[in-house]
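Supplementary Text 2. Reproducibility record for the structural model of the 391-residue chain.

All settings were left at their defaults, and a single model was retained for analysis rather than an ensemble. We include the record here because the model underlies the residue-level annotations in Supplementary Table 4.
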Amino acid sequence: MAKVVVGLSGGVDSSVAAYLLKEQGHEVIGLFMRNWHDTTGTLEGDCPWHDDQVFAELVAKRLDIPFRFVDLSKEYKQRVVDYMFSEYEQGRTPNPDVLCNREIKFDVFLKEALKLGADYVATGHYCRKESYEQDGKTYHRLLAGSDPNKDQSYFLCQLTQEQLRYALFPIGHLLKPQVREIAASMKLATAKRKDSQGICFVGKVDLPVFLQQKLASKQGNVHEILPTWRGYQNPSEESALEKLATPFRYTVRDGKKIGVHKGAHFYTIGQRKGLGIGGRKESLFIIATDVAQNVIYVGEGDSHPGLYRRALHIKAEEVHWINPEEAMHVGDTRRYDVRIRYRQPLQKATLINRTDGLYILFDEPQRGIAGGQFAAWYDGDNLVGSGTINE
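Retained model, structure tokens:
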């Protein structure tokens, strides 16, 4: 049996992961990581980190496993939070959870676990790992979790073969209600605890307030773009791929000023709340932000053409393959299922690899494609690769 360090978070999923590993006969150590101290912008009622630690300790005591604590807040700030601020400042929409897994849980935390003599690191993610041999070498696949409502493979889309080598996902084959039942039957303190929400290790935040720690408020104008804007002439199927993958470009002359905002970098494509402009039949949605000019462009209604695009582009250096042996070569074209945000149903698409990077051409136009987010592509349950959307 192996020595496994479990990232005990104080939630039900990691608690049951630890229990299952112990039942399988492994030597299990619970390791709690503290990653964030500041509560600026954290919404009232959100459990601070010390509550999480108390629950994690209670679970370790109940399971009779050693409990350890590690403070990774310095690394978390440098690798995740500073990255977030930088991305928002540039008018992009980062995904801190993806970075948290790549940079913290399966890098810094993994190294801490290895110091404790661990053979593996386990988390409570709803995903699965499959290992296979080919030409005498072992490879690892990252598979979607069995619970379609909780599959978290997207958040792990940037993991490498080396990181997956050490990873265990003990609850990936279970449904969430089953995990709750196991926790209740074992009388684990986390059995009825609510799932955490918001930013990984920070919690649920008022994003503008959170970002104002580093990014200053700066009043600017909100301009409405009508669905009849000349740039929405339906691009033909023969349109250049580059054009289909490029966001619509607006100027203040293309729309009418209808309000003001507190800073373009506080908003993201597809956002509906937080504008404070009412009196409409349908909601207003953000269709573009211009941080250089500090202007936000909005459109009325969920069907506004400014919300939709057929394609996106990922720079060559931003393309990541879970198994580099499966990487596409320049000139290759492949069909995959793609998602551009967590919990989005998989979308049929064609991937086209060119010298300037990877283009994803969707069968159907996609709503709210935002630069900085991650696109992940699947072959069935197998998450094959991912990349940061260029713009």
